């Protein structure tokens, strides 16, 4: 009985980790990875409805602000603290 309980606790911890650490589990689509790895100073991401532009942009910003770049990252890297301003059309 305790092994089932332990398994359930581990599964709940894993689920919580996925929910609260989405950046850690982010695996970009090829067009998103191309965007992230673009070495240019200014980049943009244009795409149709619902392919993940918002999360991609948020992940991109988070990588730069934290300095925690994933293993696949070959794009621009800041080796010093940066100041950013991020805005959106509404509060979503």
* Helix amount: 40-55%
Shape: elongated
Question: Beta-strand level of the residues, as a percent range?
Answer: under 5%
Radius of gyration: 17 Å
Overall strand count: 0
Helix-strand blueprint:
Blueprint: H1 2-20, H2 30-36, H3 53-66
Summarize the structure.
43% of the residues lie in helices and 0% in strands. By secondary structure, the chain is mainly alpha-helical. It has a domain of 41 residues.
Task: Please supply descriptive tags for the structure shown above.
elongated; mainly alpha; single chain; 92 residues; 3 helices
Describe the structure.
- By secondary structure, the chain is mostly helical.
- The chain has a domain at 26-66.
- 43% of the residues lie in helices and 0% in strands.
- It contains three helices and no strands.
- The protein has helices at 2-20, 30-36, 53-66.
- The chain is elongated, with a radius of gyration of 17 Å.
- The termini are far apart.
- The model has no long low-confidence stretch (mean pLDDT 89).
């Amino acid at each position: 009985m305790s092994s089932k309980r332990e398994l359930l606790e581990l599964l709940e911890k894993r689920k919580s980790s996925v929910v609260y650490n989405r950046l850690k589990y982010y695996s970009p689509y090829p067009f998103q990875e191309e965007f992230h790895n673009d070495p240019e100073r200014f980049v943009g991401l244009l795409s149709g409805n619902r392919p993940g532009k918002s999360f991609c942009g948020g992940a991109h910003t988070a990588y730069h602000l934290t300095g925690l770049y994933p293993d696949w990252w070959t794009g621009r890297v800041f080796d010093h603290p940066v100041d950013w301003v991020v805005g959106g059309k509404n509060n979503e």
